[in-house]
Amino acid sequence: MTTDLRRKLKELLIERLKFEDMTPDDIKDDDALFAGGLGLDSIDALEIVVMLETEFGIKVKNEGSAREHFRSIATLADYVGARLAQEAST
Amino acid sequence: MSWLNQLPHQIPFRGASAVTRRDEKTIEGLFVCTANDFLTPEIMLVEAMAQFAGGLSFAENAGHGFLTGIDRCEVLRAIEPGDAVAITVTLEAGFGGTFRFGGIGRVDGVEVVRGRFYLAAPPADAGSPADAQT
User: Fold this and answer.
1) Which residue of A has its CA nearest to B95?
2) CA-based angle A63:A69:A30, to the nearest 5?
3) B100 bridge partner residues
4) Which of A28, A42, B2, B98 is deepest in the core (most CB within 10 A)?
């Protein structure tokens, strides 16, 4: 599940952020998404928020915690997995 | 005073000319192309759409945002003097002080331009762009 979710997130990022020459295998699970890593910026962060809402029904409202959740594919997958589990249990 | 007068862009670089409707997430207005336009009409049209986006987000606070990105923008036919483009700009999403807008423009009901715009609010202590220039 975790591996599948990480790969799905990589595919979505590549599609949404138009990384045309990149494949999911080019993104390591622990690569930093922002400064120094993939080099994403504030516009990309907004696109990730929109992506989480449209693809998973997850609304991100806490900007402070998002900084940590969006640190890498691994942390993002953990966050999405936890939110989906939370939704399923309610 | 109209928020149009508060824009940092004024004639000849103000493309937004009149607001015809506005609510929390949508603004509608006009771009009127004239032979005296300062830049290529299509450039001024896209600039006008961004100015409407700024008016939707920042006019209430009498503040200014920064245009940080334009994406998926297409001008579907040449814009000529005399064209009055009815523009609709909608706030689609916002996060962390960055906002995404979708814009569409029509002449006589026919779509002539569409695009996506990103604006960022300056940090509260950064002042306005006008302050930075003085």
Assistant:
1) A46
2) 145
3) B93, B118
4) B98
